[in-house]
Design brief:
Elements (H helix, E strand, L loop, with lengths): L4 H18 L1 E8 L2 E8 L10 E2 L1 E5 L2 H4 L9 E12 L6 E12 L4 H14 L2 E2 L7 E2 L2 H11 L11 E7 L2 E9 L5 E7 L4 E6 L2 E7 L3 H12 L11
Length: about 230
């Protein structure tokens, strides 16, 4: 992009050694934050998982600055938070984009380059490859966190997560026992918004995995063996 070309020439002059050391190359995209320069591995054939630095540069775009060239005093470091995080104390993890932090660049040029290099060296590298302990369903994780965050007086005891190989492929579930000691299994079936609740292996209701509040109410009702009109047995 012509608007940032002079800044990127300066960046290359100062940062080429560190990018070579870290095996990174620059890519550019325009988004809601402005014009973002992000950094991925040089050989995309060797890394099909799109691993990348958590550090990127964001320049405010021309419409915001009314400048001919992008300016360092209208730029920021963006630190992406995208890593596996534990799901409660279940032993499972979930990998997703959790947000980003924007850091102001120092005004002094020498300090600024040192600051940028320090962040490239110290901020984590984001590897997108999954491992066997990671839960894929974002909706399951969000629902689990809602349930796990209930006050002590209403918390579901023994709340856990399980993954089973079924005729539908791998199915991820939230599991616990109801007040009669039966197994409750809330199955999250892929990304299509479909879920099924099972009591001791018997399907009792379907649910939409996109609505954590509804899942929370359903789970509490099933724990208490409360089968009202929403939870009819087959």
């Amino acid at each position: 992009m012509r608007y940032i070309i002079n800044r990127m020439i300066e960046f290359r002059d100062h940062m080429a050694p560190i990018l070579k050391e870290l095996n990174l190359r620059a890519c550019t995209q325009k988004n809601d934050s402005g014009i973002e320069v992000y950094f991925v591995v040089r050989d995309k054939k060797a890394d099909p998982f799109l691993s990348h630095s958590s550090v990127s540069l964001v320049f405010e775009d021309r419409e915001e600055t009314n400048l001919t060239d992008a300016a360092w005093d209208r730029a920021y470091l963006r630190i992406e938070q995208h890593e596996p995080r534990p799901v409660g104390d279940t032993g499972w993890f979930h990998h997703r984009f959790w947000g980003a932090v924007f850091l102001d660049l120092p005004a002094d040029p020498e300090t600024m380059w040192a600051f940028i290099e320090k962040n490239f060296q110290e901020q984590p590298f984001i590897t997108m490859e999954r491992n066997p302990t990671e839960i894929q369903s974002e909706h399951l994780v969000d629902a689990f966190n809602e349930l796990d965050g209930l006050p002590e007086y209403s918390r579901i005891e023994g709340l856990g997560i399980d993954r089973q190989l079924t005729n539908k492929g791998y199915v991820e579930s939230i599991v616990f026992e109801d007040s009669q000691g039966r197994e409750i299994r809330l199955q999250f079936l892929g990304d299509g918004g479909k879920g099924e609740a099972h009591v001791d292996g018997e399907k009792v209701v379907e649910f939409n995995t996109h609505f954590e509040d509804d899942i929370l109410r359903m789970a509490l009702a099933l724990r208490d063996c409360n089968y009202d009109s929403r939870f009819l047995r087959k």
